Amino acid sequence: MPIFQYEAMDATGQEIKDVIEAPSQDEAQATIRQMGYFVTKIAVKKSRGKGPEQKSTAKKKGKSFALGRVGSKQLTTFTRQLSILQDAGLPILRSLKILEGQQKPGQLKNCLIDVIDEIEGGATLSEAMSKTPKAFDRLYVNMIKAGEAGGALEVILQRLAEFQERSQALKRKVKGALVYPITVVAFAVGILVFIMLKIVPAFTKIFADFGTELPAMTQMLIAISKWVGSYWWSLPLGPIGLWLFLKLVRKFNAGRMGWDQFALKVPIFGQLIEKNIIARTMRTLGTLVSSGVPILEAIHIAKETSGNAVFENLYQRVYESVREGESIATPMRENAKLKLHPVALFFWFFWPPIIGVAIYLNKLRGRVLDDMVVNMIDVGEETGELDKMLYKIADNYDEEVAVLTESLMSLMEPLLIICLGGMVGFIVIALFLPLIALIQKLS
After folding, report:
1. Are the beta carbons of 318 and 332 closer than 8 angstroms?
2. Bridge-partner residues for 9, per DSSP?
3. pTM, whole model, 2 decimals?
4. Cα–Cα distance between 303 and 284 in angstroms, integer?
5. Is 154 exposed, middle or buried (0-12, 13-18, 19+ CB in 10 A)?
6. Are the CB atoms for 357 and 369 separated by under 8 Å?
7. pLDDT digits (tens, 9 = 90+) for 47-71
8. Nearest 5°: CA angle at 147, between 142 and 151?
9. I need a surface site. Which of 166, 333, 427, 441 has the fewest CB within 10 A?
10. How far is 393 from 377, CA to CA, in rounded Å?
């Protein structure tokens, strides 16, 4: 049976706040009126079971079927809107109801309905959000909790919105840089497959009718065409098989560590991945520290947001050292250097083996965190401005990611043109060499 929390006035005009247990809201109001009170506000506090009446109430509230988590872009927009409403002085419950009402049916609307129910039942905002992990992760909940404890929820929401907007901007830059090469390569593969399946076989029949001896380039092209014609179905299976293989490898701790180490040290793209992770984790750590979240909890959350086993191991070592009373900079400096890993070495053998192993051994001399990062954190701890130093590191690496992305785009375009030009040139030369030889014989 539900428990209702109500506010009422007695005959003298004195305000009364209490709870009452009743089968429905109408019966609860009738009971309160019989007690001689005038009801001004009533809401469900909690229920001891989920009966048919509660299920129908949930449906009336507008919850819809939805799968997966709330998208980061949608959550960023919600956070910014909530921070604006809080800055305007609206009560948190009213703000949430306004935002829930303007949401389209989906996962976020469902989560907001649950959050509103929890708050009306007496829970705090952070407690309510912690029960909806599909929308609000540990970082979000801990920052809200810190804001509630410090009485500065609107400030925390602004910081959280700025953090999410910066993260979104960085993601857009990286994704935008990948759209062009992926699109060009996809179209190029489609055109080349069409040439191999339709154009080259037609020329092969012409060459067979003339009965002339074909050059080596033409024979190679015909062999490739026959292979594509017989095994064209294996072309999409290659990338899918590679993706499944990597997913399987990453299921194991050793495999995940080896692949993530390999990804960080791949020429050019490894730098982009490394700088992106440093920017994200440092901004996360800085945002949590400035919001008043305990340092151990902040380091643990930063570890979870890294998404890379190498950095997770690094932050775990930092977490253990800080728990024992050490500073952050010292364990970062000691554990920033990579160690030889057999799985990572295995992936380097897919390159020309000697070149791949040489590159890997050379990369092991470097660190995943530059000395500049460690020194800035050290200075921040000494001066008591750790959050500001972490923000500066994140801003610096954001700029480096943007510059590196633009440089890759500038380099990618001519490389793609050269590669595609070389392939087309090979096909044209291979097809026309026999025709030129035939014309010379006829003349």
Report:
1. yes
2. 15, 38
3. 0.70
4. 10
5. middle
6. no
7. 444 444 444 444 445 677 777 788 8
8. 155
9. 441
10. 9
